[in-house]
Amino acid sequence: MTQPEMRLLWSDEFDQPSGTPPDPRWWSYEVGGGGWGNGELQVYSDAIANACHDGQGNLVIRALAGDAGYSSARLITKGLVAFQYGRLEARILLPRGAGLWPALWLLGSTIDTQPWPACGEIDVMEYVGSEPRRVFGTVHCPQHSGRDGISGALVATEDLADRYHVFAVDWSARRITWSMDGVDYFSLSPDELGKSWVFDHPFYILLNLAVGGWLGGEVPAATHVPAELKVDYVRIFAPPA
After folding, report:
1. Is 131 among the catalytic positions?
2. Which residues form the GH16 domain (predicted)?
């Protein structure tokens, strides 16, 4: 039996002229440094140099190195786009090089009244350049946060930075399932998390490219900077009827 076609709720296809910033209808910036709780090296900025369209259908988040250190971008849809249940997917070309740590993730929209991790976090895609064939997904929630988050991983037969991949989560009241290129590799249910399951309210989207940190690791001289995370699209689909 064929699966019913999913109904698109929202998307950003990034079909904007070269050098234009992320669409302000959907995206805003989180800026600043200080390690972001993970010992990260970059300062996030709202500069065009760190996040813009390339005119070829991609949003490019770019890590740069300068006299003051590394800069990059962290984009969020908080207050602009959020959803509860359904499918989030994005087609992404990952950067190459140890010390680079890109991510596509979700945070609970209740974060201002229920600070992390009580708001919940779903990491749709994380990747560290020192493990070029491994992608992983994680949840952070009460009793399972930070280094104690619950993760699953997929190890590919080729370097993930060689070509674009589609990263996704399918999220319902009963289960969260992670996939890459249509292959499921990890799943969690409320029965497995018990009272720690806080994934029953709207979440918003984040996209970022971190440098270094406790997970990203050291940045060796062989890692090429500028480094680019290219995003072809981000789409939200309605849950099955």
Report:
1. no
2. 1-241
